Amino acid sequence: MKEEILRVEKLNKYFGSNHVVKDATLSFKKGEIHGLIGENGSGKSTLVSMISGIYEINSGKIFLEDREIKVRSLVEANRNGISIIVQEAGTILGLTVAENILGNEEKFIKHGNKISFMNREAQELLKNMNE
Questions:
Q1: Residue 7 exposure: Cα atoms within 13 Å on the Cβ side
Q2: Which of 51, 78, 99, 129 is the most buried (most CB within 10 A)?
Q3: What are phi and psi of 73, to 5 degrees?
Q4: Domain spanning 1-84: which CATH class is it, in words?
Q5: What pLDDT, in 10s, does the model give residues 45-62?
């Protein structure tokens, strides 16, 4: 049985009086790939934005490897290993593919030329996606 790495339980988001995400519950296991499908305005991007720290969660919980975490920003989510590549091109302008995939470049600073190490690690991650 695959190890559960991320679980969200009963996430809710309101924009004013509009309840845009209602009790969303999902779990992600190691090696799985998920897709969210729905009409425009159905809450797909909002849900992902809540998990990745872009939007505040009004209620519900996020668990990372069975440990509840509070995600209040993109930086905090990234420190917990949760990253997002958004569909809007302008928001990732100026970042390399490796920076978008890996996010936290601080761990590469100790390696002198962090860019080459980041590129290698991103390349390895992309290669392993097909395994």
A1: 8
A2: 51
A3: -160, 165
A4: alpha beta
A5: 999 999 998 899 999 999
